[in-house]
Structures are given as structure tokens and as C-alpha cells.
Amino acid sequence: MMKKLFLYCLGFVLLFMTAAFIYQRASDTTVSPLKTTNETNHSVTPQNETMSAVEDTITSITEETTTTNIIGPDTTFLDKAGNVLHLNDKKGRPMILNLWASWCPPCREEMPFFEKAYQMYQNDVEFIMLNAIGSRNTETKEAADSFLTEIGLDLPVYYDIDKNNQLMFGATIFPSTVFFDETGRAVKTIRGMLTEEQLITEIKALLSR
């Protein structure tokens, strides 16, 4: 009788130790994913900081000097009649490409500055006022035309196709203006609204190159 009782007790102890071992292994396995998640969160932090920096630039003008050539890949856009035009076809004299949207208050505010500059320099500079169709769901050719009719400007206005120019020139901020020399080389990009004085200064600099 005592021998059976001893065997029962020994079996119970072994069963308890086995259960405790299995529980400990399961706890260790559960902790590992938590450690991995924390490491992932650390890697996300710089991205969040970068996004904040990008959002901050929206409130100020940024200027970039670039040596990018528009030759290959060539971007395309539509004129008012719906004809497909190539940006390369416009080279041969200095060009200014302004990406704008009718929903964008700074775009609307600077448009008269471009109108005045166009009246002054249209014989020397190619102006491409490119509407950013698709930049928002509400930004359509009809919305752009309605705005243009409202302000009554003579500027040469074109329309982006499938946002290809917005992507090509990194127009994450509107308005964005790209200045090209006569060879088709993009020499400067300004993101944010230009004042009238700044625009005239940039055009004079472009013509003096």
C-alpha cells in the first residue's frame, strides 16, 4: 500500500514538473514577438519625424537647384483642345512650368503674378501653367476651367495626364514651379507660392544664364 502511494506521489511530482516546463517554454515564445514589435516601432519613428518635416515645409518656400534634364523620359500634357503635347517640344528657349490646382489658395493668389510676367516676357520665355488634375478627387478639367473663367487670365494653361508631371517633378506641395534653360535642363525648382518680385527676379536670372 505504501509503495503504491509513493508511486502515485512520484508520478504527480513528475507531472507537475513537466507542466511547469511546458508553461515556461510557452511564456518565452510569447515574449519574442513583443520584442520584435518594439524593434519595428523604433524603425517607424524616423519615418514619422520625416513626415513631420515634410508637413512643415508646406508653410514655407523651398528652393532646389538641379541638373535634371527633361530629355528622356519626356513628359506629356494636354492643351485646352485635348491635344497631347510633349514637354521636349517646348524647349529652345527658357521655360517656366508651374504646377497648380484650383483648390489651392496660394496657387490662386500667385496666378495674377504669372499673368503679369507672361505679358512682360511671353516673347522670351515659354510659360506652361500646368493644372494638377487628380491632385484631389475634385480637381478636374471642369473645375480648373471654371476657375480660369472666373479670374479671366490669358495665360497658356495645360492639364496634367495621369499625374505624370506631378510625379516626375515631385510636386508634393502646390504650387511648385520648375525653371528650365533653353536646352531643356531644369535649373531650379521652387515649392511654395512666389511673390511677384521673386518671380520677376527668377525670370531675369533665367534669361541671363
Describe this structure in words.
There is one protein chain. This protein is 48% helix and 18% strand. It has five helices and eight strands. The protein has helices spanning 2-57, 105-121, 141-151, 164-168, 196-207, and strands at residues 62-65, 76-78, 84-86, 95-100, 126-131, 157-160, 176-180, 186-191. It has an eight-stranded mixed beta sheet. A hairpin with a 5-residue loop joins strand 7 and strand 8 (186-191). Helix 2 packs across helix 5 (196-207). Residues 25-60 have low confidence and may be disordered.
Q: Count every helix, treating DSSP H or I runs of 4 or more residues as helices.
A: 5
Strand order of the largest sheet: 1-8-7-4-5-6-2-3
Structural class: alpha+beta
Mean model confidence by pLDDT: 76
- Strand content bin: 15-25%
Biggest sheet character:
8 strands, mixed
Termini Cα gap: 109 Å
Number of strands: 8
Features:
209 residues, 8-stranded mixed sheet, 5 helices, 48% helix, 18% strand
SSE inventory with pairings:
Elements: H1 2-57, E1 62-65, E2 76-78, E3 84-86, E4 95-100, H2 105-121, E5 126-131, H3 141-151, E6 157-160, H4 164-168, E7 176-180, E8 186-191, H5 196-207
Parallel strand pairs: 4-5, 5-6
Antiparallel strand pairs: 1-8, 2-3, 2-6, 4-7, 7-8
